[in-house]
Every structure is written in structure tokens, then in C-alpha cells.
């Protein structure tokens, strides 16, 4: 029995792996590691799921990796120590292949590698624990229209359309045995840390114990979420704030912050016990709380439990859902969210099996935002640098100002001998960034001169910031400039400047394509040419135009095919051209977004035409028969239908053009259930037998 069960689970795991890989661009090497900068020198490939550590890193590249190439659709966690700890980072190739140099925290320091498929879901998910009698029964979740699921444990599985995120619920869940079991899973790339460790009725773990336990989870190579506390203990100075501070000082990785929110402050606050609060007020408190958490930790947010309080009415929950979900979709820092349905307001009625009002509101909302939209390349989205911490030349003093971001400002300078230089600004590849300069220029506009990596001097005019000085309470104004940075460390030098507060280096958002096209092909059939195409991902995809080149090689619309809209799973499309020309046919695909923007893909060519005529039966019905004739040349001919008794039931002169021709023969089944269709041209005859 044990052997039979093991085979059952092995077989199920293989099915899941296959389904996940259908959503990923095939590649023989998901990660290539290089000894040299910019993908040069000794190299080796690392494949999916395998953990490489220490001397098992191929080509003897332990502690000798400087650059990597990561295939789109995969993530790769690289770490300093063989157990996945120390400096570590989960690189993710979301929009394109990543060809990057490692920053100083990992350059020539990598002793741990794990590559995983990236099943990038939509944001909307569900927290649901199936009944003990029917484990992994997700009948309820199936009705909620969600893209991901968690169940406060490690035992469910992902499917091709819904990702499972496992959780290490309590202290025991982070021991070596369980970590080994997590590593063995074949459908996971996210791991949530402890559930309400600040709550004696939940996992009940002290901060001092939780941090080393969380460190154990780094050995999985998964993206790691923070422990999720009760809402009142998620801020600075409380349980989660203390955990995050200790994790950071101990160099222990937390990739995103998980939070819970039940509006307990509203329930016991201004109007205690109000079972029907205004959903707009509940929503306002929710927004303020979530924004505060993000501004505190500046990491992606997963809201794994939230609702409008278990004591309020169904109508309050419905109103809150209708306000909160569109807002969550629009916030770039929200990666995922999962509504927690109170026991008194389940999503599905246990008697009828139908969605309740609250369940219907959640199910009817169609999520459209991908959880992760941009690559994770090791560089922060925004790097803030205080002017007073830069290298100063020709000026030795700074001024105190409590209203500036760092408490100090650097006086204005003129001439080329006074310089403020920011060094070691790392970029994983050569690309443009936004340089945001915060400054004070009292009463008058001033110029600022800057150089990137000691290159050409550039002069930009900065507007006046007003009449107040910083110490009088004035806020710094900022100016944005687009600058190019090279691979590795960069410097920015300022000479002529007004008073400087700080600068920021901000990633420019990538151009997000509405679809990811994985295949566009043509195949010759008896009836013509069949066009096939497949997408791995669609965002606001309205429709496709299929175009065909005419005799003048000008592409004209052949057909319009409706798109899926939004999808994170493979979608397949096809169209049949019943009238290809003999010779080479050219087809092109054009995709239109909901806002009218379009993308045109490279054309494909297919040769059609036979050396001799081809005569085929296409279809039959009670009233007619359809046939096709493929001909290399244009010709005149005769087509006829003879009954089984020899009577001619239909005869017609026809003109056959070069290429594929289709003809409909209107003979009723009652006249000729069985018959012979013949085509005669140029002294040659071809026949088909028909039985209807």
C-alpha cells in the first residue's frame, strides 16, 4: 500500500510539473552563470529545481560568479552561504531574459543557487482550509474566481491555473525535517512565514526565537514572506517591526510583508459595536493602514487575511469588497490579497452549495493585475542618497536642517573646483534611470551641472523653490532627469548647484507588452492552410488581426479573432484559410490592446500547392456535399454527382483557379445517400465515393 501511495503522489507531482512548464518558455538552460562580467569567461548552466551549493556548483564556480543570464519565466535565488543564508536575492525574469552583473553583495560570493519556474499569478487569491475529512478539496475555492490559494499549511498543490503558496505556520514548521519536505515540493516558489506569532492563541513565538527559525526557511530557495501578525502589532516598535529590524541586522532575507486586517480599531473605536458601518469609512481605514505598512517597510505587500470585521453585516462586507478590490488591483506595491470570510458569512452556503452574497461579490470581481509586473534584477526600485554623505570637494561644511530628509543640507556651489560626487551607484545592466534631484533655490532659478562617470558636462535649469529657507520649514523641490548608467558601479558628479538635500536613482518602468506570444505557425491541410498561435500571458488583450499578403505583397486583413483579455495561462488560437494561393503564402499577426494600442509580429511563410490536382471530400449534410479541389494551374472542368443506380443527380461546368477551390453540390440525401462525385478536366477524371 505504501508503495502504491508513493507512486500515486509521484505521478500527481509529474502532472503538476508538466502543467507548470506549459506556462513557461522552454529552455535547455534556465540559468547560466559566468565567471566574468557581462556574461563572459567560464560558464555553466543550472537547471530547474536542483539546489547547487558549495562544490556542487558546476564548473568549479563556487564563489566565482560575476554575471548571470536568467531565462524569462524563471526565478533564481542566489545566496552567499551554502545553506541559502547570508547575502541572498531571488532574481526574477518576468518581462524578458535577464543578462546582469551581480552587485558587490554577491559578486564572487555565491555558494547557493536554486532555479524555479515562475508561475506569475494575478493578485486575487483565497485563504481556505478544506475540511479534515476531504483534504485538498477546493470545491469552494473553485467558485471564487482566484489565481492563487493558501491554507495555513504545506499540504495542498498548485494547478496549471492556480498557484499554491505554502506556509510554515508555527515554530515546529521550520525544523529541518519540514524544511526538507518543503524543498522536495515540485510546484512551489513562495513560502509564508509564521501565522500571528504575537498571538498566544496562534503560533505564539517570540521575536528572538522567530528570526533564527525564519532563517531556516532560506534553505528552500523560495521567496519568503514575513510572519503575519495581528493588525495592531504590525507597526514599528511592535512585534513585526522588531522582527524586521532584527532580521535586517542579522542579514536574514524577507522578500515581502504579509499582513492581517479586520478593522478592530474601527469596531472598538469611534462607534463601538456598530454592525452596519459605512463601507466607505471601513475602506478609508483599510487604505490608511495598508499605506502605512508599506511606507514603514518599503517591501511588496501580501494581505493574507482581511475583511470588514466578523461582527458586521453581509451588506457591509459586500460594500467593502466592491471598494477595496479595485484599489488593491491599482496599487503597484500590493502583490497579492486574500479575503478572509468570517464563519458567520461563508463564501458558499453549506446547504445549497451556492455562493452567498459576500462570496458572489468576491467571485464577481475579475482581477486583471499580475502580482509581479517587473523584473527583479538585484537593484532597488529607488536608491536614495543624502548629499551630505557624498564625497565633497572644495567645500568642507554642511548645514543642519531638521526639515531636510537627512537632517543636513549641502550649500550651493559655483565653479568647477567645488564638487559633490556620489559613487558606487550599482546598475546590473546598461540602461536609463531617472535621476531625481532634491534642492533649495531661494527666490531665483539656478543651473545645475552634472557628469555621469566623468563624461560630458550636462547643464539643467532648476526652478525657484520659493522665498523660504529650509530651516524656515520649506520643503525641497525636485527635478527629474533621465540618465544612462553602465553595468557595474557608476558615479554622478555635481559642480554648479543650488543647495542640495538628496538625490534618488529611480528605475524606469519597462514597456509591458500586452501579450507574450510563444508560437505562430502555419500548416498545410487538404482544405487549405491552418494558422495556429499561442500566448503564455495576456494583459488587456482585445483582439487579433490575421493578415495575408496579396499579389502586390501588401498585407490585408484576413480575419479578426477575439482575445482572452487577461490570462496567466496558455491560450491557443487557430484560423483556417480556405483560399491560399499556389506557391508561397505570407501571413502576419497583429494584436490590439483595449486602449487601441497594437503590436505587430513578424510574418511567416508557408508553401501551398501540389504538382497534380487533389480532389477531397470536405463535409456532408442532409441537403448537400462540399468538396475541395487543389490545382497547380487554372483550368475549366466539370463536376458531377452520380447516384448508386447510375443516374446523374447533379452536373455543373466549373472554373478552377490556381490554388484551393471549394464547391457545394446541392443533392439531397433522400436522392443520393450513396453516390460517386467526379471531377473531369483536360481529359483526366478524379472520383470520390460518398456515403451519408
TrEMBL record:
- Cleaved signal peptide residues: none
- Highest taxon of source: Bacteria
Question: Which GO BP terms apply?
Answer: fungal-type cell wall polysaccharide metabolic process
- Parts of the chain that traverse the membrane: none
Q: Describe the location of the Asl1-like glycosyl hydrolase catalytic domain by residue ranges.
A: 127-362
User: Gene3D superfamilies under this entry?
Assistant: Crystallins, Galactose-binding domain-like, Glycosidases
The protein in question is named Asl1-like glycosyl hydrolase catalytic domain-containing protein
